[in-house]
Fold this sequence. Notes:
The chain is an alpha/beta fold. The chain has a domain at 75-145: CATH 3.100.10.10. It is built from 3 helices and 6 strands. The protein has helices at 57-60, 93-99, 130-138, and strands spanning 75-78, 90-91, 109-112, 122-125, 127-128, 142-145. The strands form 2 sheets. It has a 3-stranded parallel β-sheet. A 3-stranded parallel β-sheet has the order 2-4-6. It is elongated and about 90 Å long. The termini are far apart.
Amino acid sequence: MKLSELRPAKGAKSASKRVGRGKGSGLGRTAGRGNKGMGSRSGRGTRPGYEGGQMPLQRRIPKRGFHNPFRKEYSIVNVGDLNRFEAGSVVDFDALHAAGIVKNVRDGVKLLGDGEVNRAVTVKVDKASREAARKVAAAGGTLEVSSSC
Length: 149
């Protein structure tokens, strides 16, 4: 057998339908799209959430509350996570990201007071709670809060 003699298995390949090519083709006139309606038009297809004319779920369910489009979403770091770093090191976003504590960039990093820190480190974050600031200072470290956010 030669490479030029290779053929697909019998019935594996079929000719594509040639729609809209006259009555004799079997797919003339409406070209297999049926009569009228959304599916028969060009550019057909339904938009996401369309339920065939029924009132869509998104419009049926009650709406409550308020979504603030200007809300700041901070990546959370707890004081207990700072024990991973060496004493005297500078802990900023890049160091936290490299250590795998902060996964994705949001509107900044906020330090919260959960856990205990027993190393003196310099922490540079966008926000911090009072308890977190107290615990970092008690361990002999410094906390620098940037006002960029």
